[in-house]
Each structure stands twice: as C-alpha cells, then as structure tokens.
Amino acid sequence: MKIQFVFIIFLCHITFLQAQEFQLNETESTLEWTGKAAFSAYSLSGTIEAQEGSIKIEDQKIIYTQLTINARSINASNKQLKKHLRSEDFFDVKKYPEAMFELSEFILLNQDQLLAKGKMTIKGITKAIVIPLTIEQTNGQVSASGTATINRTDYGIRYNSPTFFTALKDQAIADEFEVTFDLIFDRSSS
Questions:
Q1: Which is nearest to 189 in space by CA: 120, 140, 131?
Q2: Closest by CA position to 147, among listed 39, 70, 45
Q3: Which among 85, 113, 115, 84 is positioned nearest to 99, based on CA atoms?
C-alpha cells in the first residue's frame, strides 16, 4: 500500500512539472496603438491584430513566449492615416507583413507584475525591448496585459522624426509610440 501511495505522488509531481502550452486566442485578444505629436498633446490611435502566438509554462515559470503581429492589419479611423501607416514611410506592410516579439527572460516585480525582456522585430530589424506586463492564469487560459513603449526610429521609421528632422516643429511626430495589449491564450489540447 505504501509503494502505491508513493507512486501516485510521483505521478502528480511529474504532471505538475510537465510543460503546458497555451495558444493565442486571436478573437479575444486586443492590441491598440497610440502615436503622438512630438511637441503638443495631439495624439492618434487605432488597432492592430495579433496573428499567432504561444506561451509555455513549466514548474510555475513561463519558459517561452512568442507573438506574431499582422502588420497589414494596422488600422485607424482616418482612411488616409491608415494608408500612410501601411506605406513605406512607416511600416511598409507589403514588404514586411509581420512583426514579432520573442521572449528572452521574465523578471518578477511582484506576484503578478513582470518585466518581459525580449526581442522585437519590425521591418526586418530586431532590437532588445523590455515590456512591463501582468500575467493571470485562470480556467485553462493565460492572459497577458500591459503597454509596450516602442521607439519607431530603432526600426528605421524616421518619417517626421524630431530626432532626424529638427526643423519640423508642428509636423513632428514623437519617436515613441505605445501598444496597449490584452492577450488571451488558451490551453493547447495536444
């Protein structure tokens, strides 16, 4: 009887340590971008769609995260702005239809708050980035939410940048933009 009891505990321990994979739920996930004027409070915003992604958790630690963004889905209420953001001046979505984030490591701030260190690829350029986020795991889902601040000039997007074109004044667009995200991942059935 004692041998059987120890074996059951051993099996439970293996199950607990076994990696669990979660796949992005594209329909429940949201990403919203905000860009601002460089020298005034004026701002514009819109949406963009996550295309695919996954999170792998092992022994209560996130060991892998990857997210692919559909750059062609960048949207704004102003049709002219939407067209311009998709053009060569900005994200050149015909040539670079996807952007990607891949995790390097998580740094725990407290029980739920994390800093995700990773690599962001936009327009074929990969740079290190740190993103503060909150992770929750409930009912077979993992949610990751937060706001990423991205410097567009790091990825070769210099259109009306005050860093590169100092005489622009009112036409200058801030180098940094924000992407606020609420990503939902469902437990994989496999």
A1: 140
A2: 45
A3: 85
CB 20 within 8 A of CB 34: no
Sign of CA dihedral 175, 153, 87, 100: negative
pTM of the model: 0.86
pLDDT in tens, 50-66: 999 999 988 878 889 99
Tokens of 98: 């996807």
Residue 6 has pLDDT above 50, yes or no: no
Average pLDDT, the chain: 88
CA–CA separation, 58 and 19 (whole Å): 4
Q: Which residues contact 164 (CB under 8 A, 6 or more apart)?
A: 153, 158
pLDDT band at 16 (very low <50, low <70, confident <90, very high): very low
**DSSP assignment of the chain:** -HHHHHHHHHHHHHHHHS-EEEEE-TTT-EEEEEEEBSSSS-EEEEEEEEEEEEEEEETTEEEEEEEEEEEEEEEESSHHHHHHHHSTTTT-TTT--EEEEEEEEEEESSSSEEEEEEEEEETTEEEEEEEEEEEEEETTEEEEEEEEEEEGGGGT--TT-TTT-TT-GGG-B-SEEEEEEEEEEEEP--
